[in-house]
Amino acid sequence: MARCTTNEAIALFLNRLALRSPLGEEERAAVLNLPKVSEIDDVERDFVHVGDRVNHACLVVDGLVARFAQIQDGARSFVALHIPGDMGDLFSVVEPNVTWALHALCPTRILRIPHHTLRELAERYPALAMAFWRDTVTDANILAQWTVNIGRKDALASVAHLLAEMAMRHQANGLGNENQYVFPITQADLADAVALTPVHLNRVLKRLREENIAIKEANSVRILDFQRLAYVAEFDPAYLQLTRDDRT
Amino acid sequence: MPRFHLHIHNHTGDTLDQEGSEYRDLGMARDKAIAGIRSFLSAELLEGTVDLRGYLDIADDDGTVLERIDFHEAVKIHDI
């Protein structure tokens, strides 16, 4: 699959905003013409660190990014995954003191957008301010759902839910569809995302494969039966807020 | 770091770890293997059953089995 370009990623970000918020031509043009401070090509590992004070937000151009929480002994746990078109830390505009890490799970391209640029856009275009705010609410909804999955669902449901969620998010971002999407995450990292050991995850993935529900391949996921996947996962996409309804 | 593959063999069949994971050494791989066994046995326990008839093979990238851990070695059962 061809890698996203910077302009394509910005267009994906705009699509993500417009999916949930009404934006006029002027607001759309303002997002498409975002000035870019710098790109990081093929970064791996941490590119935002715990304890940093940042002055930019990071747009995922290509690859896959995880946000980690970290405890005092250095142990880490996933709290979010971000795909191309996601601004993984948009909320840093209003809280630049970092208490988590952004980590590339594979060779990843990142575009840094200055906070002052995003702030100026929000001040000039109230509709964009609402769109940015709503975007961070979506991230919070996803985190809340992850908490429910890990705390209340069995391993099979939890893994199935993540696979279903990522399918819908890729489709919403204009990447992949509910049958197949690029997902370059190792089993060890995927296990971390669902709070399982790799051994246990492997058992779960085998069951999903044998029951012809979904197949996790090295860099992608193939969903053989989305209805059954959603049933096993008790998946309701409402928390992803994929429709605009009558929001202003 | 070396890559180890943790293959499970039990009543559900063989679950092969084709991807493997990098661990510092065999000792760390053993710790991860035991944690993995305990993890899915915990899930079975929540469903009302624990089946200790199985084992986990720790293999290297060439497929050589370096160590075998029987499930019952990973847990201590205090029977009534």
Can you tell me about this structure?
The complex is a heterodimer of chains A (248) and B (80). Chain A is α+β, with helices and mostly antiparallel strands and 248 residues long. Chain A has two domains: 6-148, Jelly Rolls; 153-240, Winged helix-like DNA-binding domain superfamily/Winged helix DNA-binding domain (Arc Repressor Mutant, subunit A, Orthogonal Bundle), CATH 1.10.10. Helix content of chain A is 43%, strand content 22%. Chain A has eight helices and eight strands. In chain A, the strands form two sheets. In chain A, strands 1, 2, 3, 4 and 5 form a five-stranded antiparallel sheet that branches. In chain A, strand 3 (65-70) and strand 4 (76-82) form a beta hairpin. In chain A, helix 1 packs across helix 4, helix 3 (115-124) crosses helix 4 (126-152) and helix 5 packs across helix 7. Chain B has one domain (3-74). Chain B is built from two helices and five strands, in the order E-E-E-H-E-E-H. In chain B, strands 1, 2, 3, 4 and 5 form a five-stranded antiparallel sheet that branches. In chain B, strand 1 and strand 2 form a beta hairpin. Chain B is elongated. The chains are: A alpha+beta (248), B alpha+beta (80). The interface between A and B is medium-sized, with 15 and 17 residues.
Quick recap of the structure?
The complex is a heterodimer of chains A (248) and B (80). With 248 residues, chain A is an alpha+beta fold. Chain A has 2 domains: 6-148, Jelly Rolls (Sandwich), CATH 2.60.120; 153-240, Winged helix-like DNA-binding domain superfamily/Winged helix DNA-binding domain (Arc Repressor Mutant, subunit A).
